[in-house]
Write a structure and sequence with these properties.
By secondary structure, the protein is α+β, with helices and mostly antiparallel strands. Helix content is 27%, strand content 33%. The protein contains 4 helices and 8 strands. The chain starts with a strand and ends in a 7-residue tail after the last helix. This is Arginyl-tRNA synthetase.
Amino acid sequence: MLLNTTHNNKDNNKLIDNLVGKPFSFLQIIKLKGIGSKRMIVDDVSPNMASILNTVSDTNYGNIELRPKGILIHITKGLKNFTWAIPYYKLVVYKTNGSSIHSNGKFIHFRNNKTFRENKKFFNKLMNEKVKFDEQYNFSPF
């Protein structure tokens, strides 16, 4: 779900909290050693998300925030902020010359550069949280 979060809106906050959970508490953030990625350069997005990128040759930046039941991807376009909420059960991450995050027929690709490489620990933490979430619903008969 892609939302314009430039201004604080209670309805948007409720939607995000219902989809990916409320933010982690301060103690949980300390235990996880942080829940946010560093700023990364957005290389490409799916055609149905092209409207959130800058139309001029400005660099587009994004970062990722962990939530208990999913992630939030924050993207800035000029003075506007957009948030893409993705629950873990719909999240797919590909490691191809950077990182590509897919959900519901949409994707965002982050460029492989210095800032992306600094986020390697964060992506490992993201995948560990996704595995923990998926283990709750393991219905394997074996």
